[in-house]
Specification:
Layout: E1 6-8, H1 12-17, E2 22-27, E3 33-36, E4 39-42, H2 47-50, H3 66-81, H4 83-103, E5 107-111, H5 130-133, E6 138-143, E7 156-161, H6 167-170, H7 172-178, E8 183-187, E9 195-196, E10 199-203, E11 218-222
């Protein structure tokens, strides 16, 4: 089944969690700064302070191919050029995917920020955001924005993405943990310890179903793509 915006079975990690119980669809667009019709838009507002631009997963896996980057750019241009028609198409894609899963008795799961960090909860369609329009879908994302207001959305799960590259950003760690969020940490090599900074570690590369993680977990991820050579502090070499 094909979709104009969503991708299913295109991410090596989400495939690990796809089964007769869960199936994940992801929306990928060009991250960080995007030039559209002479105007500059930012799809990742915390990217600069978190210093994750060079190590962005946008280049990992299939993202290394030019045709994939072109497709992501095209979707980003559509999003910023004509938000209403973009959201209309997203609703069509989500309904189609949810229906496909429902017929097979599978839980539909969707990540809208595959390579972006957009506050989708603020984008309304006839007075409701996409999560409220599809309450039976399990939505989840990684985010670098520590104060997104989504606690009222029981079907949307966020995992905060850590970076030690900038003390101004790193200081949010205690706040997000105290608020019950899990924290994704990218390590240069597979992390073997069962804890990090006193919190339980889960293997984030085993699957992508973050909403199943215990609260306040450290989600250990292995550096991929350009992140393997990142030396800013975004990628962690040793336990800190």
């Amino acid at each position: 089944m094909t979709y104009k915006l969503l991708g299913v079975g295109t991410n090596a990690k989400t495939i690990k969690g796809d089964s007769d119980e869960y199936l994940t669809a992801i929306l990928y667009m060009t991250p960080y700064k995007v030039m559209v019709d002479g105007k500059l838009f930012n799809s990742c507002s915390m990217a600069a302070i978190a210093s994750c631009i060079d190590g962005c997963l946008n280049t990992a896996g299939r993202g290394a191919f030019n045709n994939v980057q072109t497709a992501r750019q095209r979707k980003a241009e559509w999003f910023y050029r004509d938000r209403d028609s973009f959201m209309d198409q997203l609703v069509i894609d989500v309904a189609k995917f949810a229906n496909y899963c429902r017929k097979r008795d599978i839980q539909p799961c969707i990540r809208l920020n595959g390579t972006t960090d957009i506050r989708w909860e603020l984008i309304l369609i006839d007075g409701k955001n996409i999560f409220e329009w599809f309450p039976s879908v399990q939505w989840y994302d990684y985010t670098k924005i520590p104060n997104r207001k989504v606690s009222h959305l029981s079907n949307y799960h966020l995992t905060w993405s850590y970076s030690g590259a900038n003390p101004k950003y790193e200081k949010y760690f205690d706040d997000v943990i105290s608020n019950g969020m899990s924290v994704a940490v990218v390590f240069r090599k597979p992390y073997q310890s069962k804890s990090w900074r006193g919190y339980k570690v889960v293997d984030g590369d085993k699957d992508d179903l973050r909403f199943l993680d215990p609260k306040q977990s450290i989600v250990a991820l292995y550096a991929k793509g350009k992140a393997k050579k990142d030396m800013t502090g975004f990628v962690i070499d040793i336990a800190a």
